[in-house]
Write a structure and sequence with these properties.
- The chain is mainly alpha-helical.
- It folds into three domains: about 1-45, no CATH class; about 50-130; about 130-160.
- About 60% of the residues lie in helices and about 5% in strands.
- The chain has helices spanning about 1-5, 30-40, 50-70, 80-90, 105-115, 115-120, 130-145, 155-165, 180-185, 190-214; strands at about 15, 20-25.
Length: about 210
Amino acid sequence: VAAVSDCGVKFAIWQDEKKGRMFTSLSGGDCQKLLSDLPAKLKGLLHQDTESSVLFLWKTFREVLKHFETDVSGSNVEEKTRAFFRTFIELGRTKRKGYGKDRVTPYIHIFAHHAPVKHVEFGCLGWFSSQGLEKKNDVLKTMHHARSNKWNAAADALKLAKRSEAPSNSAHARAYVKSDVDYWQGGGIEESRRKRQRSAEESFRASREINMES
C-alpha cells in the first residue's frame, strides 16, 4: 500500500463484515500511473526467487498496451504477449499465488493470443474502445439473473442478446391455465386466503403474549 501511495495514487485495503477484504477501485489514470511507476518501487519488496518474473509481467504488459495505443503501423508484438503468457503459467508452478493455468482469465487469453493479431489486422487497437463490450457484458449479466433459467448461461446469453435486437421477438408471458375450476370458482381460493389470514393473526397474538410475559 505504501508503494502505491508513493506513486501518487490513493489506495486502501479494509475488512468488510459481509464482503470480506475490500480495496479501493482504481480509475484508468491511476492504472496508467501504477503501470509506469510501481514496478521500480517493487524491487526488493517481492520474493527474490520470483521477483524478476513478476516485474517482467508488469513491464511487458505496459509495453504492449503502449504499443497498442500508439503504434499505427500494425507491427506484430505477438512474441511479447506469448512471453507474458508463458511467464504467467510458469509462476503458477512456484509457491506464489494467483498465477498458473487455473488463473488464466478470458482477458489474459485474449491479450496473449488474439489482441496482437487484431492489431496487425486493423493497424492500431488504440482506435477502438471496449466500453461497448463492457456495456453489453453488464446487459447480459442482467438478462442472466432476470430472464434466464440458468441451466446454460452461455447459450441463454446468446439467445437473449439476439432476441433483444428485435423487440417483436421478445418472449411473451404464457397464460396461466386454471385447471382446478372448483378451487378458483367454488370458493377454495377464498378459504385458503382466510386460513392464511387467521394463521398470521394467531402468530401475531402469540408473539405479543410472549413479549408481554417477558
